[in-house]
Amino acid sequence: MRIAALFFLTYLKRRLAYRGDLFVQMLDELLRGGVALAMLQIYASKTDSLAGYSADQLLFVLGFALVPISLFHCLCSNLYQFNSRYIIEGNLDRVLLRPYPIYLQICFDRLAIEDLSGAILGTILMVIAAARIPGFDCGPTHLALLALMLLSATGVVVGVFMAFASLGFWFEDRVGMMPPVYNLMEFGRWPVELYAPWLKLLITCLIPFGFAGFLPASVFIGGEVWPAYVAPAVAIAALAAANLLWRMGLARYNSAGS
Questions:
Q1: Over 60: is that where the pLDDT of 201 sits?
Q2: Nearest to 212 by CA among 193, 232, 242
Q3: Domain containing 100: what range?
């Protein structure tokens, strides 16, 4: 943990050396959240509810979904470059020589602290939505459950992308599967009742982004209670499967060679 803190402080100093660039990157993350908010307002203006949920309830879900993806961007965004930078270019050899967990080294090579602005925006949206939702429970037990759901949603996102990054050990491609998988997260922000059965199966069982947004958030807006109990288990399962793939991939890694 001490070394992890030093990694973070070192990267923070590097980013603060160029404050203007950091500020622009923070605005970029906020604009992405702003676009998602604008789309929600457009959809809400066309109907009184979507799958029985009001605009304020869906606003809470949007705010909820922004937090785990922003934390992922901050802590694990280097996974996007894993195939090209570490496997194809051979930089994984440098990482393997250091006496520190390999996955953490890769994450700490780039900490996108500017993306934390998205988590701040998501928190603000949740607070605004909660104030508008009649009977919203702000008690300590409910807030503790909210923290657990956010942690679980973050674990799901990290697990999914860690698993797909691990496939780079078998399929050496510079782009990899990350971009199309990333786009699937948009489905996790909306009520699963809107989707066809095959798509619902995809985002709840195969690539469980439904548990990174709507499903755990729905319990706070009058939805079903069962996602509150299933989401932590899904996060643990996703991280365990990703860790297994990661270790299997490392075992077959033979360096880039030249």
A1: yes
A2: 232
A3: 14-252
